[in-house]
Amino acid sequence: MTLILCLLAGEAGAQFLQYTPPGGPTEEPESRKERLEREVEEARFRLGVVRVAPWASLRDIAYVRNLFATGTVPPNDVTATVGAGLRAYLRNGSKATWSAQVLPEYVWWRKQTARRQLNGRYLLGFDGFFNRLTLQFQAGREQQQQIVTPEVPVPVSARTDGGELLAEVKVSGAIYAFAAASVNRTNNLVDDFGDPRTEELTLLDREERITRGGLRWRPRQPWTIGLGVERSQADFDHDALDRSNSGTSPVAEVRFEGRRLHFQSDVAARSLEARRGAAFVPYDNVTGHASLSLGTPRRLLATVYGGRDLVYSLSSSYAYLEDERLGASLSVGLGRRFSSRFFAEAGPNTYTAFEAGAPRRRDDVSSYGASLTFGLPRNLSVELQALRSEFDSDLPGADRTYTTVGTTVTLGGR
Predict the structure, then answer these.
(1) pLDDT digits (tens, 9 = 90+) for 91-120
(2) Running DSSP on this structure, what letter comes out for residue 87?
(3) For residues 77 and 100, what is the distance between their CA atoms, to the nearest angstrom?
């Protein structure tokens, strides 16, 4: 895996020490500029000079089954998330666009009433595509139900407040200078659950600061090659599980966007140290993601992908785990109205202990799933999805599975 990531050297991410849900990279047939142009064009309502696109969603209507080898097991349950709001766009000339998202949503559980929660996305953004300068900014709050850590595969509501600024300047010819900065505060909203397995998720509440800068080379239209440096800092809120750390890492990115062949990779040679005497074991290894796709999303697209992420552990015996995966996905489309996607992936979660006497822990994880999407008139879509993850641990009592089957109905884009 290290050799693959080093040979297959994206953009600066808002967070890197977090759990990524199974499924691999999403296939985006559009660039950010193209997607923004389409969204503005589809926003048919006008409020003066502002274009408005209404949004409504009934999503994640799902039956959720959680199985643990030992301990208290929550009941099998049914959940759904309903939301309604709007996206608004204001054009400043032909090259600059302000955007706003006000998308409140309510998470409902049938049996576990304590998990019911008012969530939503409230964001303000700016995109400027000028002659030699590209400038992007986004700030606000995103609060959604998600799985926070593979150690506890239970969906909970988590809130992220912060912002991100990205800038790229054409220096000369095919050389571009780029810079990115982000500040994000993460809070897991589990105080009222009464579940001993999820109440510890508040120990992962933290603030992360990331800055990245470097140079990109675009010798031809489909190619982007970049080298740079990233500085990261994470400060935890609770002393009981303080994993605060910081470090400086060289980063590399390669992107190729052909008509039928797509490749992207973003890797970093991490070197992280504890801050303020925190309980964090120094980390020196390569993290990142790479994917190779052949085909087109609207017909047939096959993708192979791999990656390694560092995820903070909830255990007092382990500082963190390395989440490594190799997977493949297949997307089949019939024009603009119907698409399907299937994926399978596997890899280990390898834990790093604080002391040599701690028991060795490795969880072998396998996940597979599928989704079917039907596009209906008037920007309405219906999606059916299913996911199953199995965790086979060499630590007694740590085996677990997560299974969910559900549907989503959306008006106004995904």
Answers:
(1) 988 899 999 999 999 999 998 888 899 999
(2) E
(3) 34
pLDDT given for residue 308 in this prediction: 95
CA angle 167, 26, 402 (to 5 degrees): 125
Report which DSSP code applies to 198: T
Residue 16, burial from CB neighbour count under 10 angstroms (0-12, 13-18, 19+): buried
Q: Among 277, 284, 290, 333, which Cα is nearest to 310's? A: 284
Distance of CA 198 to CAs 4, 64, 77, 78, 390, Å? 35, 16, 16, 18, 19
Q: How far is CA 49 from the centre of its chain?
A: 33
Rounded (10°) CA dihedral 332, 334, 337, 340: -20
- Buried b / exposed e across 21-50, counting CB within 10 Å, b at 16+? ebbbbebeeeeeeeebeebbeebeeeeeee
Number of H helices, E strands in the chain: 2, 19
- pTM of the full predicted structure? 0.85
DSSP, residue by residue, 232-288: EEEEES-GGG---EEEEEEEEEEEEE-SSEEEEEEEEEEEEEESTT-S---EEEEEE
Residue 27 pLDDT: 66
CA distance 164 to 178: 14
Residue 375: its pLDDT value, please? Answer: 84
Q: How many CB atoms lie within 10 A of CB 261?
A: 12
% of the chain residues with pLDDT over 90: 59
User: What percentage of the chain's residues is helix, strand, coil (to nearest 5)?
Assistant: 5, 65, 30
